[in-house]
Write a structure and sequence with these properties.
Layout lengths: L34 E4 L6 E6 L4 E8 L4 E6 L4 E5 L6 E9 L4 E9 L2
């Protein structure tokens, strides 16, 4: 009957507007210049490199949203020790000197 929304065997399903996101660790959600992180995945340390000098703070949270740490960024590069982090996926948020979020992204820690 028309108006029946239940799928039928061997019927077609049309899908529109699919977004697939893959974290490579490079150019993550870039809002103000390029950011590169490497290596990703990281085991001992993670390097952040910024094209802009507007980055001031980087906040690290776990994949469950737990605040891990916040670091001040002194220049266009930042090196973070990951040895004490548990293996898993982490989220970084970079705020600029004006307090606005410049970049967000993910990285993986393996040991």
């Amino acid at each position: 009957s028309s108006g029946d929304n239940n799928p039928k065997v061997n019927s077609e399903l049309l899908i529109d507007d699919i977004f697939l996101g893959f974290s490579t660790g490079i150019d993550e959600n870039n809002r103000d210049g390029q950011i590169t992180i490497f290596p990703n995945p990281a085991s001992n340390e993670l390097n952040f490199s910024f094209a802009s000098d507007k980055a001031e703070k980087i906040t690290i949270t776990s994949s469950t949203g737990q605040h891990i740490d916040t670091f001040l960024i002194g220049n266009k590069t930042f090196k973070m020790n990951t040895e004490k982090l548990s293996a898993g996926i982490y989220v970084f948020t970079i705020k600029g000197t004006d307090g606005n979020i410049l970049n967000t992204g993910r990285f993986t820690v393996t040991h």
